Amino acid sequence: MTVPPAPAGDRPAAATTPAAELRFEEVVKRYPGADAATIEGLSLTVPAGEILVLVGPSGCGKTTAMRMVNRMIEPTSGRILIAGRPTAEREPAELRREIGYVIQQTGLFPHRTVADNIATVPRLLDWSRDRIAARTTELLDLVGLDATFAGRYPTQLSGGQRQRVGVARALAVDPPLMLMDEPFGAIDPITRDRLQNELLRLQRAQPRTIVFVTHDIDEAIKLGDRVAVMRPGGHLAQYATPAELLLAPADEFVERFVGADRALKRLALGRVRDLPLERPALVRHDDPSAWVRAQLGDAEVPYPLVVDPDGRPVAWLDEDDLAAERVDAAAGSPVAIVSRDDVLRDAFSTVLAHAVQYAAVVDDAGAVVGVLSSDAVARELAPAPAPAEPEPAA
Ligand SMILES: Nc1ncnc2c1ncn2[C@@H]1O[C@H](COP(=O)(O)OP(=O)(O)OP(=O)(O)O)[C@@H](O)[C@H]1O
C-alpha cells in the first residue's frame, strides 16, 4: 500500500507508534454504596504488542477493569501503568486520545459520514486535511472496505461494516493501546469469525497492545496471546496463554468455564501453518491429460489441482475429468481454500464442507503454497500415542 508523503512537520500517516506495555498493580474498584469490591486486587502485565483477553461470566468486572485503563472509571486504589507511566498522572482527555476504543454498538456518530467518523480524533489533534484524507483511505483499505464507503452514513452499512469502521476509527491516530469491549458481540457468527481473523491479520501487520473483553471463551482462546479469566467478585481466576488454560486450568471454575470439549479447543489453538502441508500436482487449464497423469506420480495428493496463471486454485480434477484429452478447469470440483494463518478449527470445517477433503493453502496473494488434508487435521486431534510396551522376553 502506498501512502502519500506527509506534509512537512506532520508525522507520517503510516503506523509508527510502538505498542505500549500495560500493567495493573493491585488495582481495586469499589463502587460507591456497593457491599463488595467489583475488582479485587488485580495485578497483571500485558507485554507490548500482545492481545489480552478479559473473559468471564456477566458481572465479573471485565468492563470495569478495561475502563479503568483510559480513566473512564477511576480505581479505588492501586495503579495502572501504560509504557511504565501511571495513568493517574495523565490528563484523562489526553490519555483517551492516545487509546483506541471500540465498543459493541461501535458508537459511530449517525449524522456523520464514515470518513468524518474516522477523522474524529485526527481533527481534535489538528491534523491537516491532506493527512486526514490519506489516513482515511489507508484505514478503509486496512479494514477491508473500499474507498466508496467514505461518503456513506452508518445507517447505510451492515453491522459488520459498521464494526470495521469502528475499528478504523479507533486506529486513526495509530494508538499504542486499544481497548475493545465485546466489539463483535452483536455480529452474526460468520461475520464475527471474519472480523476476528481480520483483527489477527492487522495485529500481525502492526502489533499493538490490545485489551479485548468478551464473555465467549472460544473468542478468548482464538484471539488472546494471554487470557485473564475473571470470576464473580472481580477476582482473577487465571492469567495464562490459551494453551495453558486448556491444558492446565488453575481450578474447577476455570475448567468448567473453559469447557469440556478439549480436543475441539485444541483445534482452536493450532494454525494451518503448524501442520505439515502436502505437495499437490499443479496443472493449468488445457494441459494435456497424459502429462497431468504423469505429474501425479510425484505428488503427495491423489488429485491434480488446476491453478490460474497467478497460481490461484481453480478446481480439483479426478480420473473422470482426465478422460478428455486436455484439462478442462470447468469440469473439476470446487476447492476448499484456507490460509496459513487460519485456525485449524475453521480450516477443518472448510475442508469438511467440500467433496474433496483436501484444502488448498494459499499465501496473501491467493497463490497455492501447499495442501492441507482432513487426515492431517484429524491426526492433530488424536491423543498422543501411549508409550510402547516393552517387548516380552523371548
Ligand atoms: N457505575 C456503577 N455503579 C455501581 N455498580 C456498577 C457500576 N458499573 C458496574 N457496576 C457493577 O459492577 C459489576 C461488574 O460490572 P461490569 O460491567 O464491569 O462487568 P462485566 O463483567 O463487564 O459484565 P458484562 O459481561 O455483563 O458486561 C456489576 O455487578 C455491575 O452491576
Automatic annotation (TrEMBL):
Keyword Cell wall biogenesis/degradation: no
UniProt-listed InterPro entries: AAA+_ATPase (IPR003593), ABC_transporter-like_ATP-bd (IPR003439), ABC_transporter-like_CS (IPR017871), CBS_dom (IPR000644), CBS_dom_sf (IPR046342), P-loop_NTPase (IPR027417)
Gene3D superfamilies per record: CBS-domain, P-loop containing nucleotide triphosphate hydrolases
Domain of life: Bacteria
Domain CBS: from-to ranges: 331-389
Domain ABC transporter: 22-258
Alphabetically ordered keywords of this record: ATP-binding, CBS domain, Nucleotide-binding, Transport
GO MF, any single term: ATP binding
Family (UniProt): Belongs to the ABC transporter superfamily.
Name used for this protein in its record: ABC transporter ATP-binding protein
Species name: Patulibacter brassicae
Lineage of origin: Bacteria, Bacillati, Actinomycetota, Thermoleophilia, Solirubrobacterales
